Amino acid sequence: MFGDITGWLVAFKYPASDSGPQWLEVKQPEREEALALARQLAAQRWPEADVCKVVPIME
Q1: Residue 40: CB partners within 8 Å, gap ≥ 6?
Q2: Would you say 38 and 8 are in contact if contact means Cβ atoms under 8 Å apart?
Q3: How far apart, in whole angstroms, are the C-alpha atoms of residue 8 and residue 47?
Q4: How far is CA 40 from CA 1, 16, 34, 45, 54, in A?
Q5: What would the pLDDT profile of 1-58 be if each residue is shown by its tens digit?
Q6: Whole-prediction pTM value?
């Protein structure tokens, strides 16, 4: 029915912002590892943003 998870789309949003989220694509099938990597990358680009959505990428 569904394919294997091949990665994750992780959305980051500033808490007090009206702008849309910034998305990162992480090609890591394990969710927790993908979130950790996404948070590291986001800390460099958007230091005060928090994760607001996580979506699996499937084959």
Answers
A1: none
A2: yes
A3: 20
A4: 33, 21, 10, 9, 15
A5: 578 999 999 999 988 778 899 999 999 999 999 999 999 999 999 888 999 999 999 9
A6: 0.86
Structure tokens at 7: 């990665």
Q: Which residue's structure tokens are 């910034």? A: 22
Tell the residue number behind the tokens 């394919």, with chain if given.
3
Helix (H, G, I), strand (E, B) or coil at 48: coil
- φ/ψ of residue 31, rounded to 5: -60, -50
CB burial of 8-38 (b: ≥16 within 10 Å; e: otherwise) equals: bebbbbeeeeeeebeebebebeeeeebbebb
